[in-house]
Structure formats: C-alpha cells, structure tokens
C-alpha cells in the first residue's frame, strides 16, 4: 500500500493556520530579483516522493514561490479538467443535442473559459456592504455541474422522440443537430438560477433541515447511477453505432461495431490507468489520476490510428465566448428539475467551502466562517445563473481541490489564481477542446464511467453517516423504490399522458410531470422530502437526538469560561454558541456535505 503525505498538523503551526485573514500582499520590485520569490526553499522532491513527508503549510493568503505556484495551480487545473468538460461534451454530443463538431469544440472552450473566470471570482472576497461578500475567500474552484446532466439529456431526447418536438432525425435514423433544444437548456438554466441566488442568502441551517443527509445522499446516488448509462454507452463505442452502424462512422479510421473488443479495450485502458495512477502514483499524480488516465487513452488511440485528425485540423487556433450562440428560450418542463438541481448545487457549495476552510486551517464556526459561506454561495449561484448567457451549462464548486490541498498542504489562493489562468488558457486555445471532441467515444466512456461511479459513491458516503433507524429505513425505501425503478426502466411513465392537442401550456405541464416522475433523483425528492417532514420520530430516533443533545451540552461545558479563565458566559450567549458550533458534529456534517461534490476527490 502506498504512503501519503502526512497531514497531521504541527501544534506550533496552528496559530499560523488560523491567522489567515490578512490580505494577500502584492510583490515588490525588489522581490523580483530574489531566489525566494521565484523558487524558494521548498522541497519539490516531496511532491514526487512515495514516502510520507510533512510539507510546509501555506495559508489562504500566504505568498508562494512562483515555481511552486505554477506546479500546484496546474495540479488543481488538471485534477478538475476531466470532469469539467464532460457535461458540455455529453449535452452537445451524440447523446444530447448532436451539435456539429465545431459547436462541440466551442462548448468545451467556453466551459473552460467561463470556469476559469468563475474560479477568479470564487477565490476572491469582494465586500458588497452590510456584511455581505462576493467570493468565498478560500481556494475553491468552479466547474460545470453533473446535477443538471441527466434531466437535460432526458429532455433533449424527448424533443427528438415526441411529435412536433424541436429536434428531428435524419433519413438514416441519426440525430440532426438541435441547437434550439440546447438553447432551451441554457435559457431555462439562467432564469431558474435566480432562485439559486435567493437560496444563497438562506441560512445553511434551514437548507440542512429541508435536505438532510438521508435525502441528499439518496439524490446523489441516483444521479450517479442514472448517468452511468451514457458513460457505458460511450465506452462500448457511442450511441451513433448502437443500432448496427460503425463507430463513430463508416468512414472513420478503424471504425468498428458497437461493443467491439477493440473499442471496449480502448475504454478499459483509460479506466485501469486511472486506478493504477491513484494506487501507485506519487502525491502530485494522485489528484490528477483521471486526467493522466485520459492521457494514456489518448496516446493509445493516437498510436493506433483512432483519431479523426480532420476535426483537430479544422478547429480554430483560438476561441472566445460568444463566437457561437444558441437561441435561448425557457421550457416549463425543465423548471422543476432545474430548481431541484440548483438546490443540490447550493448544498454542494456549502460542503465544499466548509471542507476547504477546514483543510485551510481556518475556523469552521463563528461569524467569519459564516461570511465565507455566504460569499461563496453567492458567487457560486451568480456564476451558475449567468452561465447560460455565456453559452455554458450551469456550474458549481468542485470538491477535488480539497484533496489537493490535503496532499500538498497548500491552501494559498495564489495557486487558485494560477488554476483559473490555466483553465482560461486551455479554453482560449481551441485545439485543446478539439482533442476532446475528436477522441473516440470509448476513451470518453472509460473516463466518465469512473467519474459517474464516484458521484454515486459520494452519495453512499453521505448515507453512511445517516442514523439508520426504522423511520430512516422506511423513508429511504419509499423514495428509492421509485428512484431505482426509474433507473432500471426510464421510459415506464412516458405513455401515462396521451394528450396530443394544440394547448402548448398543457402539453408542457404534462411533459414536466412525466420528467419529474421518470427522473430518478426527482422522484426521490418528491417522495422523500414530504415523508421526511411528516413521518413521526420513533423511540430510536428520539434516543439518537438525546445523545446529540448531550454532546452539545458537553460542548457547553468546554466553552463556559472565557479565554482568560474568568466568569461564565451568559446563558443566552452560551446557547447561541452551542447551537451554532456543535463542534462534536461539525466535522461529520462537513464530510457529508463535501461528498456532494460532482466528482468526489476525482
């Protein structure tokens, strides 16, 4: 078993960790000529070593040597880029709107540019007045969200299937490009995103009560399992040849039938490489394992002649936002699913910011911590809301950076700035996006199957913290019974409404109901949340609540004196602190919520 970087904090280091509220100091001209500014005295070999080492800690506002900032910032970028580009690839590719290759290349570039800019905003801390901020002020990164993908794919495919839909099939049965339906996703995402901005000002305590771990874990489990269908379809060759054709087309280099051993083997090379890098790689490689595994697949595909070079050759050298546009619209059937997805995005942000503050050595209680949560939620919601206008699917904070912080012992926001700049450059140079579009579907499939499984595992991780009383088992069984049924047979409810009239409002409403019932994670919400609110607690639940209350009272005893050992605090103030802190539970809650990241640790 491989060793990992020792993250046990040195007690003498804790004050420096907690003193992370000062502003970043801009370098002076005299710094530019010093070795410490460019290289420093950092042990760079430790990043490539398999031995357990204690690395120096850098707080959120500590300066880094330029070389170290470049290395760690690029590590953050490579740790997230594999997951970041998957939603636009799925929604714009053959599994979704079947856009032209040039449009797909643009979507990848636009997502990278937008997420790079969003990372700049998220790690900032811009005062808005009256105690409100924009930006979390800690090292959080922004990427496209998986929470919207499955409901969006269901909508896109329904537009191909239903009579009079926005999308059509070609004479040979393949999909025609459908920018109108893709524009509906973007437009609806931006309008519904206004609700996310409202939720950003909702106290996290209230969101936790509406969405306890039992519900959020079940939702995330269903999202991961539902997405697995598109991942394994790509692994076997892609939907373009699923009905007897050749992948990706008859004229493609080394074209093969769906499920061909050569295609499955190509996807397997990515999947097994990710596992090997994570098992045996040094600290620098562990959090880039998905990207490194993807690179292995690219090398094999290129060496064996699976690439269609025409797609890369025809791509522009540079790309920018809005060089391609899509007709924006709002679709009623997407409103409720997107509201649910935005609630998940907000829950993700709470957990990821909490986990980042904890890994950064900052307090995870008190008014200062609350302001970091508020600023992070607002920037996260605002960027997700505006992403549709920027032709990008909705975004969210990614959780990978927390494990990068843990392994590198670096929480400096300078590394986040470098990460944002790296994403920005990847997006501007369009050839980078073209590689993703041109690579065989099997390579993408080997990557996404691993990523989607990690989403499901994140849900299991949350459910592991649930107190499995009879009440919890009943609620989970009732909600997941329909959720799992939707995963096994997604089309079971599609024929329930047979309306074929000209009333577009009624038709849209019935389509929305169909989507709600047949989408697994939405079914879990519809069933689980009301049951969570109305099912009474049993004796075993009450015993668990009493144990938590006793833990809080024990905490009260530890903080009943001030820092000088003087008089007891007032009971009202003490009650307020106990209610806010609950230190005995805070790390468990942070662990639960951090697992809500799109691709947990990967």
From TrEMBL:
GO MF term set: xanthine transmembrane transporter activity
Signal peptide positions on this chain: none
GO cellular component: fungal-type vacuole; plasma membrane
Keywords: Membrane, Transmembrane, Transmembrane helix, Transport
Bilayer topology annotation: Multi-pass membrane protein
Subcellular location(s) per record: Membrane
Domain of life: Eukaryota
Membrane-spanning segments: 64-85, 105-124, 131-149, 181-202, 214-236, 263-280, 292-312, 334-353, 414-437, 443-462, 505-527
Primary residence: membrane
NCBIfam families: ncs2
Family that this chain belongs to: Belongs to the nucleobase:cation symporter-2 (NCS2) (TC 2.A.40) family.
Protein name: Purine permease
Organism: Rhodotorula taiwanensis
Organismal lineage: Eukaryota, Fungi, Dikarya, Basidiomycota, Pucciniomycotina
């Amino acid at each position: 078993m491989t060793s990992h970087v020792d993250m046990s904090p040195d007690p003498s280091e804790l004050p420096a960790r907690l003193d992370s509220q000062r502003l970043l100091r801009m370098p002076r001209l005299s710094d530019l000529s010093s070795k410490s500014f460019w290289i420093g005295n950092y042990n760079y070999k430790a990043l490539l070593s398999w031995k357990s080492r204690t690395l120096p800690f850098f707080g959120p506002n500590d300066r880094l040597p330029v070389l170290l900032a470049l290395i760690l910032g690029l590590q953050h970028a490579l740790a997230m880029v594999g997951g970041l580009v998957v939603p636009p690839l799925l929604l714009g590719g053959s599994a979704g709107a079947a856009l032209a290759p040039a449009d797909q290349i643009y979507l990848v570039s636009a997502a990278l540019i937008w997420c790079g800019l969003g990372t700049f905003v998220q790690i900032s801390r811009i005062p808005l007045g009256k105690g409100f901020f924009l930006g979390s002020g800690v090292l959080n990164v922004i990427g496209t969200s998986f929470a919207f993908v499955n409901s969006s794919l269901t909508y896109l495919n329904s537009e191909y299937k239903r009579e009079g839909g926005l999308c059509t099939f070609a004479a040979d049965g393949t999909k025609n490009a459908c920018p109108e339906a893709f524009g509906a996703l973007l437009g609806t995402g931006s309008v519904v995103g206004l609700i996310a901005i409202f939720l950003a000002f909702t106290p996290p305590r209230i969101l936790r009560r509406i969405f306890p771990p039992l519900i959020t874990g079940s939702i995330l489990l269903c999202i991961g399992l539902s997405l697995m269908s598109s991942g394994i379809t790509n692994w076997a060759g892609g939907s373009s040849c699923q009905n007897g054709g050749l992948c990706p087309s008859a004229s493609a280099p080394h074209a093969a039938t769906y499920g061909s051993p050569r295609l499955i083997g190509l996807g397997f090379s990515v999947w097994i490489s990710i596992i090997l890098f994570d098992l045996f790689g040094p600290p620098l490689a562990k959090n880039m394992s998905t990207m490194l595994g993807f690179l292995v697949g690219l090398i094999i595909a290129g060496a064996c002649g699976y690439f269609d070079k025409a797609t890369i050759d025809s791509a522009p050298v540079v790309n920018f936002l809005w060089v391609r546009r899509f007709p924006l619209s709002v679709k009623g059937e997407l409103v409720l699913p997107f509201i649910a997805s935005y609630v998940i995005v907000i829950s993700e942000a709470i957990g990821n910011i909490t986990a980042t503050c904890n890994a950064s050595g900052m307090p995870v209680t008190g008014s200062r911590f609350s302001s970091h949560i508020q600023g992070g939620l607002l920037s996260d919601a605002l960027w997700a809301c505006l992403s549709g206008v920027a032709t990008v699917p909705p975004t969210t904070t990614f959780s990978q950076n927390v494990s990068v912080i843990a392994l590198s012992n670096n929480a400096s926001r300078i590394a986040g700035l470098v990460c944002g700049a790296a994403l920005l450059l990847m997006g501007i140079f369009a050839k980078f996006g073209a590689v993703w579009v041109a690579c065989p579907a099997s390579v993408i499939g080997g990557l996404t199957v691993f990523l989607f499984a990690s989403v499901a595992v994140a849900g299991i991780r949350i459910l592991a913290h649930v107190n499995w009383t009879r009440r919890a088992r009943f609620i989970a069984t009732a909600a997941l019974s329909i959720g799992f049924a939707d995963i096994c047979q997604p089309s079971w409810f599609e024929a329930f409404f047979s309306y074929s009239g000209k009333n577009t409002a009624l038709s849209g409403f019935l389509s929305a109901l169909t989507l709600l019932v047949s989408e697994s994670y939405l079914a879990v919400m519809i069933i689980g949340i009301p049951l969570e609110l109305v099912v009474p607690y049993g004796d075993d639940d009450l015993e668990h609540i009493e144990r938590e209350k006793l833990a809080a009272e024990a905490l009260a005893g530890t903080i009943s004196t001030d820092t000088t050992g003087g008089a007891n605090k007032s009971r009202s103030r003490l009650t307020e602190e106990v209610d806010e802190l609950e230190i005995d539970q805070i790390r468990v809650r942070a662990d639960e919520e951090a697992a809500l990241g799109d691709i947990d640790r990967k």
